[in-house]
Input
Amino acid sequence: MGTEGDGICRPAGGWAAPFRGERDGGGRMSRLMEQTPDEVAAEQLAAGRSRVCFVREESGALRASDPALQELGDAIARLPDYAEHEAIFLAVGPETRALFGAFIHRTTRGQAQGGLRHWPYPDLAAYLRDGLRLATGMGRKCALAGLWWGGGKGIIAHQSAGAWRDTTYRRQLYAEYGRFVTSLRGCYVTAEDAGTTPADMAEIHQQTRFATCLPPEVGGSGNPSDMTAAGVVCAMRAALAFIGAGTLADKRIAMQGAGNVGSFMIERLLAEGVAGILVTETSPDQRDILLDRFADAPVVVKTATAGDPSILSEPCDVLVPNALGGILNEKTIPGIQARVICGAANNQLADETRDAEGLSTRGILFVPDFVANRMGIVACSNEHAGSLPNDPLVLRHLDREWTDSIHQVTERILARARDEGVTTVTAARALADDRAAEPHPIWGARARQIIDSLYAEHRPRGVPVR
Output
């Protein structure tokens, strides 16, 4: 599974040489945060550094495995999206030179699990913030779904010079990331996410057992997009019923983004009898596919440029954000003309507190993304337990009669927000965080012990663990 010289892992599964170097001042750490991921990776490799971990101690401090990068650890802890994460692991691919990350929020409920995002980032700060925020959301999602998993997220920074469509390059890239995951010894289990495909996951699985969303041909659950769409539609039904607006029949839908999840969602919404769906899509090719697929349905698809928020101000009953995060913010919220917001995108609010208050003040019912879009992780998280046709452990999440179904949990959160006079985000976070504190009934703190062991192997001599 690799050697010490390959820069990723050695037979014992431990770390290769950590990031090393002389301690620099905080100014240099600020400059590092402003560099692109490519620049960060190149600079660290030029200095003979390959990886580092940051682990939260019992004191609350975020400790770097190399003192030379402690200022970076302190800077991470000051980021607005840092929420007492247990660990952040960073590494540079030995051949591709891509920046790899594994972000772990909580492992009380079990190993951290979350998808691997392959995406471009303007600087290291954006890369870190996305990983931190997505890991937090995944932890809350697992807790609300009753899954015995903690919150994690994998990130590969999209390389500016990378031929990311090239099959040979992708195989090398994902093989390297798979070896990186193996070196973490199971504290993080990776899966599919934006920019990563089932074929990429199969490549990862060649290098690590700690992966889900594998192709059905090797016993996995495959692409979770249809199940994710089904779950979001369940949450829409619950939200409309809660405000006394009836069912989805005859409702007007405005949808931002209709890739894999969105296209399945359109099918399900049409089956519910919606009056019409207005979609914006940044890909002209995907727009043409949608127009052909739904040519005889009340679906209008428009091409939009990346970052175009115009769909958010369309009059509709349900606004469905299915693209990337941060699109509900101080600039866009005043123009929203929807009664309900419920979509598949992660981290839809630019600022969870401020923007949830902004929506509540305007009387717009917001279903938090980690409440609505759980089915991706539900479908794939327990692949190791085998599969059944129409698996009851998966489908019960879509059954409104089950106590922890999407419908019932959504209703519970909306009622709590109303009764306590708080936002739906505050209510959802409170319930999720309570559940996230429940220890795994079999493995207890094992994942945290793995994290501590990784740090212990590579901490400087004389520095105690935690």
